[in-house]
Amino acid sequence: MSHSDSRTFVLIHGAGHGGWVWRRLADRLTALGHRVFTPTLTGVGERSHLLSGSVTLQTHITDVVNVFKWEDIKDAVLVGHSYAGWVVSGAMEELEDRVSALVYLDAFLPDDGQRGVDFLNEQQTEAFNAAREKGEVSRPGPNSKALRVQSPEDVAWIDSKITPQPIGVSLDPVQIKGARDRVATKLYVRTPLFPQPRFDAALERCKADPTWKTAILENCGHDPMVDDPDAVKDLLLSL
């Protein structure tokens, strides 16, 4: 591959995950000559020692924006998985001139002023409220069963790596002023084995909007970068 064919991918993980979840996909993209960044958001994964009540959605947005600034990233494909739909939506307001393609990988697609806490399912809401009542700063992360991890070999690995998710990130309204909509290439990817009505609605919304591309990964759970990294790689390289 010539240098001019090399692309830059910035991959942002979901709740309770970390940069580790992208390893298989990142290895495949790197082997093809691409640059890949898989930052871990503050308070989870190998940065779980930084978990505190002061971690907010803006903290995570700044985590992403700073990777672009310090690594001099331009013309990148920015991918947000699951919860990171909130993060990349907000980050785009500061990264509009640095992102050429935006991918929501089985992810939330919020509108301006919405909050993560209002999007939690019944079980997550109970855990969230219980944590707040006890004065805790996090709620349990998802497990492999909830994520619908497809390979039995991956179950123990995933469950050993998931960390609690800071609850502060769900309390701030996201600020979206139109930068996301102006990205030339936008893709929404759905993994229907994972039940999530809000993701179903996001897929239909994007299908109805000619500025969006959509894709469905039928045989993946909620972590498609684990279940089928080749399929995710092919989708990203098709952009």
UniProtKB/TrEMBL annotation:
Please list the coiled coil stretches.
none
Name-wise, this protein is: Alpha/beta fold hydrolase
InterPro entries for the chain? AB_hydrolase_1, AB_hydrolase_fold, MES/HNL
One Gene Ontology MF term: hydrolase activity
Where does the AB hydrolase-1 domain lie?
9-234
Q: Name the species this protein comes from.
A: Roseinatronobacter alkalisoli
Q: Which UniProt keywords apply?
A: Hydrolase
Pfam families noted in UniProt: Abhydrolase_6
